[in-house]
């Protein structure tokens, strides 16, 4: 998946009218489209140009996939992982 132009960074897109709401919607859509990730308990918020991934994940792979998808959209330097692990007990 490729989002946006490689010639502009996230801060430049925001200053050109790229809103937090559209960034959040794009990340939510990308997470929903990814079938092997349970994103139902992941919340997405923005603090300036930084995307905050909050909520719960049920395995380490979901954490990595969520971070990777968000980073493809806003750049890795603009993603902050605040997700908590809620691994099922056996």
UniProtKB/TrEMBL annotation:
Domain BON: 19-87
Region (Disordered) location: 1-20
UniProt keywords, alphabetically: Lipoprotein
One Pfam match: BON
Highest taxon in the source lineage: Bacteria
Protein name in UniProt: Putative periplasmic or secreted lipoprotein
């Amino acid at each position: 998946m490729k989002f946006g132009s490689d010639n502009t960074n996230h801060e430049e897109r925001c200053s050109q009218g790229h809103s937090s709401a559209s960034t959040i919607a794009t990340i939510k859509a990308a997470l929903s489209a990814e079938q092997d990730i349970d994103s139902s308990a992941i919340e997405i918020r923005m603090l300036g140009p930084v995307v905050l991934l909050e909520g719960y994940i049920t395995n380490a792979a979901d954490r990595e996939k969520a971070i990777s998808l968000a980073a493809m959209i806003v750049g890795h330097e603009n993603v902050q992982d605040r997700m908590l692990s809620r691994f099922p007990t056996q």
